[in-house]
Amino acid sequence: LQLRADLERALGAGELVLHYQPTITLGLDDGLAPTVHGFEALVRWQHPERGLLAPVHFVPLAEESGLIVPLGTWVLQEACRSAVALQQPGRPDVAMSVNVAVAQLTAPGFVDLVHASLAESGLAPHLLVLEITETAVLAGADVVAPLLAQLRATGIRIAIDDFGTGYSSLSYLRDLPVDVLKVDKSFVDHVVRDEQGASLAEAIIAMGHSLHLTTVAEGVEDRDQATWLTSAGATYGQGYLWSRPVPLVQAAALLNGAE
Ligand code: G
Ligand code: G
Ligand code: MN
Ligand code: NA
């Protein structure tokens, strides 16, 4: 496939860019000035002919071809640098979440790479959150759990992404060294729509609490959902209600309360 060679070239040519979507502290938000807790870094490809490509057009390809490892290395390093750039003296710390594919996590040297990225950028470990999808965790729990434990031991936080979509046994959570559950958008979509949907989301958030995990509700698109999630006890929200993923300059502006 042409695209694969293209992607390999793009990596070298600096055509990959990161956009940043804020996570908002729920309960502090009066609807006017949302409190930004941090950002999730989301990769895009500024393709010379095809324009700005969303990850769906190249991340699966990168995973199949193994290019996800060098791609992920770049994402991690760039996100750490951006996280440092977003900190402001006298303001609360800004966290940065980075998506990590399972192939990347289990590639030799990943833990060292994370530590090097922190050291080179000067980012404090507790401000880095690594997001692993639930399905990735389930695919290799034996291999993945010790790696997550190693990362967590230095203060880095671990989030389970797309939580609730993996047809999983919930018992795995007990044995997994994680800090954050990202409640999948498919649950958030239903919280103000039907009683069953609300019950499911409520149960996930309550379980997060009882396991002392932070919960992030993903894909929040309207204020009714945000209000509901706040009442249900979700810690943070993320979604178009507050902001789409935006370039770094706009992310910095969001921190300053600008639009
Ligand atoms: O950016 P968008 O909102 O379209 O994200 C779509 C999907 O692509 C998300 O599910 C996210 O997990 C994945 N994704 C985005 N950026 C990265 C990245 O840097 N690395 C990996 N592995 N996946 C990413
Ligand atoms: O890594 P993850 O699968 O969580 O990636 C988040 C994806 O969800 C990104 O593609 C992001 O652009 C998208 N997204 C974030 N907020 C919203 C939202 O409010 N609505 C919709 N439809 N998509 C969202
Ligand atoms: Mn994610
Ligand atoms: Na997700």
Show the helix and strand layout:
Blueprint: H1 2-13, E1 16-25, E2 36-47, E3 51-53, H2 59-65, H3 68-86, E4 95-99, H4 102-105, H5 110-121, E5 128-133, H6 134-139, H7 141-153, E6 157-163, H8 172-175, E7 180-183, H9 185-188, H10 195-210, E8 214-217, H11 223-232, E9 236-237, H12 248-255
Parallel strand pairs: 2-4, 4-5, 5-6, 6-7, 7-8, 8-9
Antiparallel strand pairs: 1-2, 1-9, 2-3
Bound molecules: guanosine-5'-monophosphate (G) (2 copies), manganese (II) ion and sodium ion (NA).
Based on the coordinates given, report the CATH architecture: Alpha-Beta Barrel
Nearest-integer average pLDDT: 93
Q: What's the number of helices?
A: 12
Return the domain count.
1
Radius of gyration: 18 Å
Q: Major sheet: size, sense and barrel closure?
A: 8 strands, mixed, barrel
Query: By CATH's scheme, which homologous superfamily applies?
Result: EAL domain
In this entry the ligands are: guanosine-5'-monophosphate, manganese (II) ion, sodium ion
Order of helices and strands: HEEEHHEHHEHHEHEHHEHEH
Assign the structural class, choosing from mainly alpha, mainly beta, alpha/beta, alpha+beta, or little secondary structure.
alpha/beta
Shape: globular
How do the strands line up in the largest sheet? 1-2-4-5-6-7-8-9
| Euclidean distance between termini CA atoms | 41 Å
**Unreliable parts:** none
- Quaternary structure: single chain
CATH C-level: Alpha Beta
The percentage helix is 40-55%
Strand content range: 15-25%
How many DSSP-defined strands?
9
CATH-defined topology: TIM Barrel
Protein name: PAS domain S-box-containing protein/diguanylate cyclase (GGDEF) domain-containing protein
Domain EAL: 1-259
Organism: Klenkia soli
